Amino acid sequence: MEKDLLELIELNMGSFSKGQKLIANYILNHYDKAAFMTAAKLGATVGVSESTVVRFATEIGFDGYPKLQKALHEMIRNRLTSVQRIQVTDEQIGQDDVLDKVLNLDIEKIRKTLEETSRKDFERAVDSIVNAETIYIIGTRSAAPLASFMWFYFNQMFKHVRLVQTTSVSEMFEQIMRIEPQDVLIGISFPRYSNNTVKAFRYAKDCGGTVVAITDSPKSPLAKKADSLLLARSDMVSFIDSLVAPLSLVNALVVAVGLKKREEISTTYQKLEYIWDEYQVYAKNREKMENKDI
């Protein structure tokens, strides 16, 4: 669907039957709730049959109701306010068995991420990172911990890795201004998408750099500029972002890059182990310390 879903419904309002208009008006006014309703529940809510709901989906160009529901999910990811997310979370999860429900939702996201992420794009991203002169990593707001996690390990593997800080647009551009064709920019963003990350992608492409996107959908604004598109599910509409599947994807990327550079990394970590031990970076095992004192 090229047009915004709500706009599409409004444009076709005049051709709808009486029952279809009831459905259309409910979606226009309560899209945050409709997105999580089955066809039967939506029909019961507005007072029409389940078959009328299915025909409505077909009428506006979808191949069945599940496709319409998926389009609603795509739309609300970047549209809902935090207050609306809290309301949706309360309705979808409730107060009982929160631990069980949330963990199972995250398990499902990892499973879908495994199904949907392109193996070709993943391998292309790995090769781009391994061969890059300089690696830039950007992730803002809730995606910032993912960017920091990736930077922590890549900084041990490579000489030139930069974690882009985005306290202001001007400072961000000052940090990425030297991107060249042999460099790679890895950007991480999920709904609601960061304008700064999108701007950084555009600049990197204009400079001829390679761009790797870690995001949730081919419709993400990051996808348009990406040389490698890595999709990770984070579509539990909650007042917080679920980062379990994206972190798992980042972890896989770090491991894959590490395996490509295992000989160099072995040397690096031997040196790091010496430094960590010599300068007591980590707390030693208590039993070993006691034995040493004897």
- The overall pLDDT average reads 86
* Helical proportion, percent range: 55-70%
Number of helices: 14
How many structural units, i.e. domains? 2
* Count of beta strands: 5
Shape: elongated
Structural class: alpha/beta
Give, in spatial order, the strands making up the sheet with the most strands: 2-1-3-4-5
CATH superfamily of the largest domain, by name, is Glucose-6-phosphate isomerase like protein, domain 1
CATH architecture of the largest domain: 3-Layer(aba) Sandwich
The H/E string reads HHHHHHHHEHEHEHEEHHH
Largest sheet: 5 strands, parallel
Give the uncertain stretches in residue-range form: none
* CATH class placement of the largest domain: Alpha Beta
Strand percentage: 5-15%
